[in-house]
Amino acid sequence: MTDHRKLLRALFDASVAAAHPDNILEAHLPPAPEGRVICLAAGKAAAAMAAVVERHYLDAAGLDPARLTGLATTRYGHSVPTRRIKVIEAGHPVPDEAGWRSAGVSLTLASTATADDLLLVLLSGGGSANWIAPVNGVSFAQKQQLNHALLRSGAPIGEVNTVRKHLSRIKGGRLARTGRRAEIVTLAISDVPRDEPTAIASGPTVPDPTTLADARALVAKYKIVCDDAVGRALNDPANESCKPGDAAFARTRFEIVARPRTSLDAAVRLARDAGFEVLDLGANLEGEARDVAVEHAKLALKARADGRKLAILSGGEFTVTVRGNGRGGPNQEYALSLASQLKDARGISALAADTDGADGGAGDASDPAGAVIDARTYGAMRAQNLDPAVYLANNDATGFFAASGDLLFTGPTLTNVNDIRVILVDAV
User: Where do the MOFRL-associated domain residues begin and end (predicted)?
Assistant: First the structure.
């Protein structure tokens, strides 16, 4: 059968290129103001976006370097060289003290903005973890502990962010409130289903429709054990997020410059060019990774039975309810569940990966982006007696694919538009 590993990787790379800051950001940058450009960036693409800003204003527009300042906070291993905008690397997905300090500096810079300045806010996936600024009465350690519990709960990212926003001095519109004297332009790379602005980096510059009551309900729903200080903060009206009509948004503009749908479209075009019929499941899929994989395996097996040469593509972001103590992420768990369903199915190969280059993991730049499965995977399962069910029970997809040799390593891609999943079915 045809080896499709190169095509699978090309489909992933096409998705990433369609959302890379070097390719998409400059056309959206606003004219220089009378005063300063204060650039505040957060997320996995933050440093790459900041570098584009510098090239545009300093080199193309000829802005006096003294009028450009700012801070970009990104995940460890995701920095690039910059000239005027300082880059700080911080923890993700669990925040650390570097992110805490950086959020404080970012708020201070925003507070210095005047009516003549442009506060340029650049957001990408990971911004919620990179910018951590606990409300008064909640310590950094308490916020970090809560964040860890939320990530293990199986809650969708939108619900996780609802809680985060009500315990933060920067999320939920509060950055806009701090810098409200300036014109505020936010340019975002979307990593959330349906491109909801309030969910990207927890919406630091947009009105927040969720409430403290919503946050309390989610803590109860997922049985999150949190410190008493967190409980008090979620009952304090002073910690309500900024709502529509707040004066903070009088001079704000928000624009999405890259989105999952566009990246998925790039993969769809390439799959068609390679001679595959395409089943496009959409860019906004959510759900438990292992369960969705079962349904997708059924689609692939039916296509093979019908003799179709089919590419099944999807985006979105799955969740994993952690019950074991293994390693992995939602894409690896999806691929592992898929492998358990397909087993020795001839002519079916697949890739599942996060477009940021890291799927779960410990927050290192060397973490796997996801995994690939094909006939080689099934051969390794037989040769090494690898039982996917055993690894699934322990949430140890990384362990399984490390043994089979199918982990996908890309390194930081410097963007993030959620996940890309491809199943290729050959006509047999």
Answer: 8-234
What is the CB-side half-sphere exposure of residue 390 using CA atoms within 13 A?
7
Quick one: which H or E segment has residue 102?
Answer: helix 97-111
- 8 A C-beta contact, residue 41 and residue 105: no
Ramachandran category for residue 202: left, alpha or beta (phi over 0 → left; psi -120 to 50 → alpha): left
In the structure, what pLDDT confidence band is assigned to residue 365 with cuts at 50, 70 and 90?
A: confident
> Taking the domain 5-14+261-425, which CATH number applies?
3.40.1480.10
What is the Rg, in whole angstroms, of the alpha carbon atoms belonging to the chain?
Answer: 22
Predicted model pTM = 0.91
User: Is CATH 3.40.50.720 the right assignment for the domain spanning 22-133+168-207+242-258?
Assistant: no
Closest CA relative to residue 180, chosen from 107, 111, 122: 111
Q: What is the mean pLDDT of residues 273-294?
A: 96
| Domain segments of the chain as ranges | 5-14+261-425, 22-133+168-207+242-258
**Residue whose tokens read 């690894």:** 391
Mind listing the pLDDT tens digit for each residue in 264-281? 999 999 999 999 999 999
From the list 342, 162, 120, the residue with the least C-alpha distance to 253 is 120
